[in-house]
What does this fold into?
Amino acid sequence: MLAKFLPTTLECRKISRSRSSGSVHELAVCGSVHELAVCGSVQELAVCGSVQELAVCGSVQELAVCGSVQELAVCGSVQELAVCGSVQELAVCGSVQELAVCGSVQELAGWKKDVPAGAGWLCGGQLAGHWLCGSEPICGIMGTIVIYRVFVLHLVSLGKKDVPPSANTRPICGIMGTVRLVAGMYLIVITKKRNVGSLLGHAVWKAVDFDVISYKKTVLHLTEDQTQDNKTFLSMINNVLTTDGFYFCTDYDLTHTLQRLADVSHDFQEMSLLERADQRFVWNGSLLREFLAQPELHKFAIPVVHGFIVMKPCRVNGKIFEWILISRRSCFRAGVRYYVRGIDSEGHAANFVETEQIVLYNGGRASFVQTRGSMPFFWSQRPNLKYKPKPLISKNTNHMDGIQRHFDSQVLIYGKQTILNLVNQKGSEKPLEQAFAKMVSGMENGMIKYVAFDFHKECSRMRWDRLNILVDNVAETQDEYSYFLVDTEGKVLSQQKGTFRSNCMDCLDRTNVIQSMLARRSIQSQLQVGSLPELAHHSIQSQLQRMGVLHVAQRIEEQADFEKIYKNAWADNANACAKQYAGTGALKTDFTRTGKRTQMGLVMDGVNSAIRYYKNNFSDGFRQDSIDLFLGNYAVDETDRPTPLRIQKDWKFLTLPIIMVVAFSMCIICLLMAGDTWTETLAYVLFWGTAAAVTAAVIVFNGRDFVDAPKLVQKEKMD
It folds into this structure.
């Protein structure tokens, strides 16, 4: 803290000197606040004019003053600084540890002793002070986070009576975290939630609405270009937040499977949710980095997963059990359909999703886990205006190193792996299948098994019953892998020893169909009564114990009510994963919902395919940028340098489409307004038609220049 404070007014006639025990050692104020010098680790600082202009040198790298000393920010060794109002409020954090100035620069207090009356509050889950105010608990959590304009400084315990009565109140449901944009820091909060159900007595919520709150009162300090960039970045954040599928729980770890949670130490259980969460599935992990360093704030920092969760009470034979489906989408190498394929250098696969099916009955619980993810080597499929771009396998990278990294982590987490590759074994997908098979064989790893199944060929002409060929082929392996099972006394009876890793090109439609069939076979085993002799007949070590819901020889497919719930839930899971990755609902969901392919289902698949084509070519670049910004793959530069958003398209982007549209329009006009002779009409039609066709051909040939490409991250993500 400063040993000697600033004078009571800023207009000091003589030079005053203040010495600090922190890193700011000397401070001098001269004239009518026309000149200011700071020495020490904050090396040089000068203010000129009527506090309208400011120059900073040395380790204090950036400083901005707007209006009549309305806003002030300092970065560098004095990390963050804010001045608000008429020089009435001041907060400093960083190397000048904690400082608060109130009133007309007449009062100075240590932050931990007194909270300024004009401070910004976050009270028990409600924002207060200059922004919002309140003191009701958030999801049962009591306490107050004091947010003072620029940074979360300290956690204190305040009751409702301590909140200024003049403050405006609004409840929130949780904190997603903070993000820095061009205008400064923003706080992202959950404003609406919907209860999904209860998992082992813990309420699970779906976040349905959010708010992005600026730490700044105004953006007047930004230039016109900066203001536009800031609006674009804000729309990117909102684009991710409005993508359906964010879930959280305040007192249970949704990022781990039941089996992983059953095999943890006492120290792990004592950790906060933020510390113990599986970082693969924490979608707001980057947003919570500021909270991670402050343990007292962890109870406000809620890990949020992205994917799909459904919880349904079901009745079979008069016995009620809880059926739960959880899909966790990985935030590593996350993105959209055509711009994120294959793996990165760390072995993270695109569109990786962990799906867990849980059954809770009479105190017992069972879990069956599957995974999906892009083929784990280096390949790409950039959009180029063609309906199905040709996939390309990289020729300049070490595929074996990448695939080895991927499966090393998969075996470590899940145990044995059976790969179900569902891509076509002819056409443009054939080289990918052959390369995948060759690489798996080259690893010579006994923990990994490869199974290729040409989904489209086997199921052509509506022969969907042939999917049972694949299920029967891997049935023995599924019995060997088993599933996680705990009895009513909490004793672990069985553990899952391996997982099926399914993939097609997108890991969406075909993959979801196969996963639902394997999950049905698992739940059939979990719910059925089985005697020991029957179990011994399978010759499987650690034989499966049954939960006793189904009678002997009774099939789960015969239970109409449960079957309806089951099929619709898996179809909804397919739609959720597809919307998050491809931008539309899934294909082939009519089979998942009804067990058969229908003509209406084919029509809907055609509609979704057309929508996918448009989005993949003309809006996915923005969606990819949105995800990269949200996940911290791109950090907004605090300097005045132009952002990648200002990169302009070349002349072809606007000129050629205009020429094509004009030529095509003239061709139609010539057909409708015939000339004096048919030869004259034909000549005009041929001329304008040829011009339109040639222009269209040039556009398609240069297709990559006309699609909406990402601007923020241009590294291996698209190579």
User: Anything to note?
Assistant: The longest helix spans residues 678-701. The first strand starts at residue 16 and ends at 19.
